[in-house]
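DM from R.C. (forwarded with permission)

"hey, sorry to bug you on a friday — could you get me a structure for this? deadline for the figure draft is monday and I only need the backbone to look sensible"
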Amino acid sequence: MLNNKIEHYMRILKHCYLKPEPEMVWLKSLKLSVNRAIDCGANRGYISHVLASYADRVFAFEPIPYLSRYLTEVLPEN
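My reply, with the result:
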């Protein structure tokens, strides 16, 4: 589990800060403050991670079982 969290934060660093994808740049530019956010098809949780800093509660849905288990291990509680 610790390895998954380290891997997750390394991926967040890469995809959000070092080589940000266009949708990540756009999302971070919005400066949202919302009660709830939804990430459908959460994959590795990059967008869910950013949404967690703007929303009180994030609902991340991922249909692929092993990625869904991964997300429950690495994403923040909200």
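R.C.: lifesaver. The CA atoms of residues 23 and 56 lie 21 Å apart.
me: no worries. DSSP finds four helices and two strands in the chain.
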